[in-house]
Structures are given as structure tokens and as C-alpha cells.
Design a protein that fits this description.
about 190 residues, alpha/beta, UDP N-Acetylglucosamine Acyltransferase, domain 1, seven-stranded mixed beta sheet, five-stranded parallel beta sheet, 18 strands, about 20% helix, globular, disordered C terminus
């Protein structure tokens, strides 16, 4: 049973105790993705259906390539015609909304959970969570990391290996490493 006061704190972006949640969605998602990750997914559509049933929104045309790792699933909302290559990880303590026609390269990580920077508070196991939003027609290159609270505009490309810590506007080619940020080019919106 979900502890309502912890749930309210989590959804409000306040510090909460994830171990006090007792959220059944986690176990359901773990079981469904274990089956999917160990399936002959190219032949066995039922294993993907099991994952899709755990998600907040998963259109029929959603394509996922195992392995995947999602925490709860019910806070993940995929738009139409999305494709995710192998190794997609979404830690969905908060909502993750992915627009239509989004392509995710291999080993993309999307995080909503964060830990306090104060070492004393951090040692208690408390965390915060902030939603992530990804617009339509976004191409996310391999090994991109999207951090909590980020919004990515439509018609944007995130270059491979980028670490996204702040909002990204629509219509850009975005490249970020730990040493520099470069908006490489404005993209023509078709």
C-alpha cells in the first residue's frame, strides 16, 4: 500500500523516504521487464504487452529493445511511434512524458530521482523527485543522461554522450559534456 503522505511529498518535489512507499507498481514492473528482457522479443509480442500494461501510456506502435530497466512504469508516458534501442533506463519516481516520434539510442538514461547534496541528510536515504518532459520528434543519441526536472523541446537532437542538466529549447542540436556546453546548430523545423 502506498503511504499517502510520502506519495504527496514525492509528487510535490519535496524530500521523501522511498523505502516507506510500499508501492506495488515497482514489483509489477520488475516482474514484467524480467520476462521481456529474457524473451525472444522479436517473436514474443506477449512479453512486450506485459511491459506495456505496466506503463502509464504505451501505444501499440511502441518499440522497445531489451534489456530495459524501469522502476515503476506507471509514471512513464510514451507518445505515438517511439523507438528505444537497447539498454533504456528510466528511474520514474516522478512522471516521464515522452512525445510522439521520439527515437532513443542505446543506453539512454532518464532520471527523476535525486539525492540531497547535504551528506548528513543524504545518509538518511531520503530523496527528491522531479518530472522529465521530452517533446515530439526528438532524437536522443546513445548514452545520453537526462537528469531530474529537465524539459526538452520538440524537434531537437541530443548528441551522443550528452549529460542534460538544464532545459533544452526546441529545434536545436545539443551537445553537453562535463567540461562544456555547446548548442551546435539551429535545426530547420520541417
Amino acid at each position: 500500500m502506498v503511504q499517502k503522505w510520502e506519495w504527496k511529498r514525492m509528487m510535490a518535489g519535496q524530500v521523501y523516504d522511498p523505502m516507506a512507499m510500499e508501492d506495488p507498481s515497482w514489483k509489477r514492473m520488475q516482474e514484467a521487464q524480467w520476462v521481456f528482457n529474457h524473451s525472444r522479443f522479436w517473436e514474443d509480442k506477449e512479453s512486450l504487452d506485459g511491459v506495456r500494461a505496466c506503463l502509464g501510456q504505451a501505444p501499440e506502435d511502441l518499440v522497445l529493445t531489451p534489456p530495459i530497466y524501469f522502476d515503476h512504469g506507471d509514471r512513464i508516458f510514451f507518445g505515438q511511434s517511439c523507438y528505444a534501442n537497447t539498454g533504456l533506463a528510466i528511474l520514474d519516481a516522478q512522471e516521464v512524458r515522452i512525445g510522439d516520434q521520439v527515437l532513443l539510442g542505446p543506453h539512454v538514461s532518464i532520471y527523476t530521482a535525486n539525492h540531497p547534496l547535504d551528506a548528513e541528510v543524504q545518509s538518511t536515504g531520503l530523496e527528491t523527485a522531479r518530472p522529465v518532459s521530452i517533446g515530439d520528434r526528438v532524437w536522443i543519441g546513445g548514452r545520453v543522461v537526462i537528469n531530474p526536472g529537465v524539459s526538452i523541446g520538440s524537434d531537437t537532437v541530443l548528441a551522443s554522450g550528452s549529460v542534460v542538466t538544464k532545459d533544452v529549447p526546441s529545434g536545436v542540436l545539443y551537445s553537453f559534456s562535463l567540461s562544456f556546453i555547446t548548442v551546435l546548430a539551429r535545426l530547420a523545423v520541417l
